[in-house]
Structure formats: C-alpha cells, structure tokens
Amino acid sequence: MPSKRELIDNPPRNNGLSWSEIQWGRISAFLIGISSPFLIFPLLNSQWVPSWMIAVTLTIPMILLYYGFTQISRREALKAGMGMIVASLVEIHMLSW
Questions:
Q1: Phi then psi for 48, rounded to 5 degrees?
Q2: Which of 92, 87, 39, 93 has its CA nearest to residue 61?
Q3: How far apart are CA 1 and CA 4, in angstroms?
Q4: Per the confidence metrics, is the pTM higher than 0.85?
Q5: What's residue 96's pLDDT?
Q6: Which of 66, 86, 91, 61 minimizes the C-alpha distance to 77?
Q7: How much is the average pLDDT of 45-59?
Q8: CA–CA separation, 48 vs 42, rounded Å?
Q9: What gap in Å lies between CA 5 and CA 18, rounded to an integer?
C-alpha cells in the first residue's frame, strides 16, 4: 500500500479528455445563438409584426452568443439581455414620437 507521501507526489494520470469537463450548456447556447437568426428572420419579415416584437426577438440570439462566448453565469447573461431589451424598447418608444 502506498504511503500518503507517495500519493501526494504522484498525481493521477490523465487519460485524455473528460466528457464531464466540457461545458455543454455554453456549446449549445452558442449553436442555438448562431442558428436562430436564420429561423427568426423569415418569421419577422412580415409587415404585420410590430417593431417592438422584432427588437425583443432579435436580442435572444445575442444573449445566447454572449453567454456562449464568455465565462459569466446564466443570471448575468440574462441581466445583460434584459438590459438590451429594455434599451431597445425605450429607443423604439422615443423614435415613435
């Protein structure tokens, strides 16, 4: 049986990539953020869709890409996304005067 000193000095060998270390949530957020504009643009290209709905809907891919590229938490990404939504709605309101 190895002693404590031998266990501490000899770290376990790494057998390659550990699938549990991959951040699948960030990868899937990136992939959805990249592919969603291609699905959203044809739906929003109608004359009956209000401008506020377009502004809110188009921020969703930006939120997903921001979360996918950075190391921030989901909560922080949602806060940033809500800020973008509020800012775009205020801009639409100010331009409609």
A1: -90, -5
A2: 39
A3: 10
A4: no
A5: 84
A6: 66
A7: 85
A8: 13
A9: 26
**If you search the block for the tokens 């922080």, which residue do you land on?**
76
Number of residues that this document lists for the chain? 97
Are the C-beta atoms of 65 and 33 separated by less than 8 Å? Answer: yes
Q: Which candidate, 59, 54, 65, places its Cα nearest to that of 81?
A: 59
Residue with tokens 């800020």: 83
Tokens linked to 20: 């549990």
Buried-exposed string 6-43: b where 16+ CB fall within 10 A, e elsewhere: eeeeeeeeeeeeeeeeeeeebeebbeebeebeeeeeee
| Predicted confidence (pLDDT) per residue in 5-51, tens digit | 666 765 556 666 677 778 889 999 999 999 998 888 888 887 888 88
Encoded amino acid at 52, one letter: W
Closest Cα to residue 60, out of 78, 42, 86, 48?
A: 78
